[in-house]
Amino acid sequence: MKLNRSTRRSIACALLIVALAAAAPPAARAQLDFDRAPINYASAVTDDRVARLQKRLDAGEVRLEYEEGRGYLRSVLRELGVPVSSQMLVFSKTSFQLRRISPRAPRALYFSDDVYVGWVQNGDVMEVTAVDPEQGAVFYTLQQEDVEQPKFVRDRGNCLSCHASARTQGVPGHVVRSVYPAADGQPHFGSGTFNTDQSSPLKERWGGWYVTGTHGEQRHMGNAISHDRDRPELLDMERGANLTELTGRIRTKAYLTPHSDIVALMVLEHQTTMHNLITRANYETRIVRHDARIMNRVLERPEDFVSEAGQRRIRTACEKLLEYLLFVDEAELTDPIEGTSGFAAEFESLGPRDAKGRSLRELDLSRRMMKYPCSYLIYSEAFNKLPEVVKTHLYDRLWEVLQGEDTSEEFAHLSPGDRRAISEILRDTKPDLAAHWQRRSAQR
Q1: The pTM is what?
Q2: Boundary-marking domain end, from 194, 229, 263
Q3: Cα-based distances in Å from 309 to 34, 104, 289
């Protein structure tokens, strides 16, 4: 149907109001509307690691084994490729199974590059989150009952009350929190909490968590109880420092390992926010381009036209992702960090490696987390399936930063040696990026 000019103008004005609201400052639009097109978070079919496992279970290709006392935990970790060495123990009551969590019975968390598993002693369900390359974090539960055909059930909104907010970049995602825990594990919420990522100083990390590993003179909030309700910040950080075992604090035999590894905690904090930023860039771009196509049809503009405001939204999301990818504002370490579970060695062994044997998974742990400060999640399925406009922007900006063309203060932490090494590793291990850089060089 051909619309007259007056009708087109009215529709365009209505769409412009929507577009202006979407282009508002980040504080005014902390959470994206991801239940509408083109995201359709609640109704879209997912293709994450848990969804794939469920298909294999339904087809009878694999079977989960039930173990008394631990349910399906060991079997689920094996089938999802999640290392036992990643175990971390959190005793604050910050999960929906909070009645079963306490300093004597902490919740166990395990993770890989794209899966997170939560297990509680005598819990009704196991909590599992997988990162879908299109939808971001997808939440599942698995009943801890010995049945013929166990089934992962997708959450349809309950988890999002905590896992889709400004703390998760406004998208379905993950959050690591540090709290002031009372003797029963209940946080003193009135005293505030810390949202933890790679930029957090150690002194604000791991309140409500057990931590095994050494960290020298640096101090953290882990392994400690806040006994004074009026002054919860009076934690005994000395007593909780440099613990290498948890004997006497918990019954470690209830868990798959006796560790709550400090290195695993640091890696978790990096990658949860990294995943959230990948999802944010994905969502922003898809929403902007979807809304632009609607307006373009009304205004009879080229289908792929995107306004400057829309382009700015995409660039902003890309730049935030780029800076986190390159560890901008990472908290400096002043003493070496060493874990207890073997997680560090297992994590580093996964590669990939360049012609010189170097990998973005190599850890430093003396002055910063990674030896080569560029996130290993650049190889993840979620990153690889970002919209092409996002990857093009990121690859161009990586070129500018790593070749020294961008000398801005944000990237001053990257030495010439860092930039050269990261560039060489990426050329050898990420073919699509190497091809993009080669085309860019040929055009100069």
Answers
A1: 0.91
A2: 263
A3: 20, 52, 12
Task: Spell out the per-residue pLDDT of the chain, length 444, in tens.
Answer: 454 555 444 444 444 434 434 444 443 345 788 989 999 999 999 999 999 999 999 999 999 999 999 999 999 999 999 999 999 999 999 888 888 999 999 999 999 999 999 999 999 999 999 999 999 999 999 999 999 999 999 987 778 878 878 889 999 999 999 999 999 999 987 778 899 999 999 999 999 999 999 999 999 999 999 988 778 788 889 999 999 999 999 999 999 999 999 999 999 999 999 999 999 999 999 999 999 999 988 888 988 889 999 999 999 999 999 999 999 999 999 999 999 999 999 999 998 999 999 999 999 999 999 999 999 999 999 999 999 999 999 999 999 999 999 999 999 999 999 999 999 999 999 999 999 999 988 876
Please give the Cα distance from 5 to 430 (Å, whole number): 50
Compute how many other C-beta atoms are within 10 angstroms of the C-beta atom of residue 57: 17
32 located within any domain: no
How far is residue 242 from each of residues 199, 211, 261, 314, measured CA to CA in Å? Answer: 21, 8, 11, 43
Q: Are residues 318 and 226 in the same domain?
A: no
**Number of domains composing the chain:** 2
Domain interval for residue 363: 285-443
169 and 104, same structural domain? yes
In a domain, 4, yes or no: no
| φ, ψ for residue 178, nearest 5 deg | -115, 125
Q: Is residue 84 domain-resident?
A: yes
Residue 319 maps to a domain: yes
